[in-house]
Design goal:
This protein is mainly beta. It is built from one helix and 19 strands. It has a single domain, classed as UDP N-Acetylglucosamine Acyltransferase, domain 1, CATH 2.160.10. The strands form two sheets. Strands 1, 2, 4, 5, 7, 8, 10, 11, 13, 15, 17 and 19 form a twelve-stranded parallel sheet that branches. Strands 3-6-9-12-14-16-18 form a seven-stranded parallel sheet. Pfam families: Hexapep.
Length: about 190
């Protein structure tokens, strides 16, 4: 469902993107080319700051937002998801936040009020709340990082994690092609 927010903003969805018909895309959302938005995802840009303004939620080209992901923002803060980034099933991305290019966010992870650098991998059920993560970090499953967390104990991404992230991107590019080819059947 594509719908306007109370301010009257409509999502801008590139014709080369695929948005499942069960997803809800609301308000000041920009979805670029070759993005896959899976079933039951919710991307909602509808809260404003004290001045009545809001920044957009941007999903950059070649990224994928998988089944049941929720993306929202407090007080109209920016959410910017970089190119070739994967947000896996049932994750919550809550702005303000910026996620770099070629990032993998694992199942059920929660990302809030932070910046995640290019090439990072955040595995399943991790929480990053108010802690900026420089490029190339690997957050193991269930790890929790918050403001003031020491990053000395956080490992760096290895080749195997980067290869896995690339496989996920490739698989979701194929889904965009496949579902777009089936669009006449829905």
């Amino acid at each position: 469902m594509i719908r306007r927010n109370p301010n009257g903003d409509m999502p801008q969805i590139h014709p080369g993107a695929y948005v499942d018909n069960t997803a809800i895309i609301c308000g000041k959302v920009i979805i670029e080319d070759n993005v896959y938005v899976g079933p039951y995802a919710v991307i909602r840009a509808d809260e404003t700051n004290e001045e009545g303004d809001m920044d957009p939620i941007i999903i950059r080209a070649n990224s994928n937002i998988q089944d049941g992901v929720v993306i929202h923002s407090k007080d109209g803060g920016l959410v910017d998801i970089g190119e070739c980034t994967s947000i896996a099933h049932r994750s919550i991305i809550h702005g303000p936040c910026k996620i770099g290019n070629r990032v993998f966010i694992g199942f059920n992870s929660v990302i809030f009020n932070c910046e995640i650098g290019d090439g990072c991998a955040v595995r399943h059920n991790a929480v990053i709340d108010g802690c900026d993560l420089p490029a190339g970090f690997y957050v193991p499953s269930t790890m929790q990082l918050s403001k003031g967390s020491c990053l000395d104990e956080v490992p760096r991404v290895q080749a195997s994690e980067s290869e896995f992230s690339e496989q996920v991107i490739t698989a979701n590019h194929e889904l965009v092609k496949g579902y777009k080819a089936l669009s006449n059947e829905f």
